[in-house]
Fold:
Amino acid sequence: MTEKRSKHIAIYGKGGIGKSTTTSNIAAALAEAGYRVIQIGCDPKSDSTTILRGGNELPTVLDTLREHSKIKIEDISAVGFKGVLCIEAGGPVPGVGCAGRGINAAVGLLQDLHLFEEYKADYVLYDVLGDVVCGGFAVPIRDGIAERAYVVSSSDFMAIYAANNLFKAISKYAPSGGARLGGVIANGLTAPYAESLVDDFVGRTGTKVIGYVPRSLVVSQSELYGQTVIEASPGSSHADIYRGLARHLVEHEETTIPAPLNGRELKAWAREWGDRIFEVEAGVIGERAAI
Ligand code: ADP
Ligand code: MG
Structure:
């Protein structure tokens, strides 16, 4: 009998950009649609799955490994909203060691415990910090763990910079079996030019936006309740946006190898947008002319 293999998907982005919020809402939407989902937080901040679990604490894999030699799945996981299995890889003792170690240790342990097969997961989501894609943080896309990666970005330059770095890592590792890119999730867009800026960046790098999530109070409110939007406001338009992202992940498995900008190109591109934004703000050109 052939086992149905779980789909492993990594979601990257700079710190604070909305990775955990977006990943948790996608996990919740997938679970609501009947899929079995595991979410693995790969950020030393260890708060990836908080809003799937009513805001409760969860021991991290690295902390548990430090204290016990024999570990069971129940020691390092919690069942959250609609059965999503939540795991936090954790990080090193502050100031010591590589933050990427947690990811290696966690994935190694979960493989040893045969979790993915035993839990019969349809989707395993990795929520990965990606300000810089250093060796440790590249593990999910480098070592054949995730087959697909997405990046959460706003129109802020640092978020675009982190996305471009991920594109560099993917284009380096994809030819030898690493993950390929599913697309960009544009989050928290507010400025009138924001969508055009992100669209222009994806156009230049041979990638695409798979969904736009506007900044919204419903997201902040749900977070304060310790819940995803899917749980706290299931009838809201934002819940439908996250359901749309989840559907996209299920229905669109096609991926690309991005063409990242080099340092000089990225700088020139940023300057160009700086000039355009200045002209819009100064009223030299109308908003539509910036698009
Ligand atoms: P990350 O995991 O990338 O570090 P988080 O998902 O923790 O980022 O999000 C950082 C903050 O931004 C949180 O307070 C979250 O509620 C908020 N946030 C994320 N996306 C949105 C959005 N679309 N609208 C409003 N607030 C958002
Ligand atoms: Mg996070």
About this structure: The chain has two domains: 7-260, 263-291.
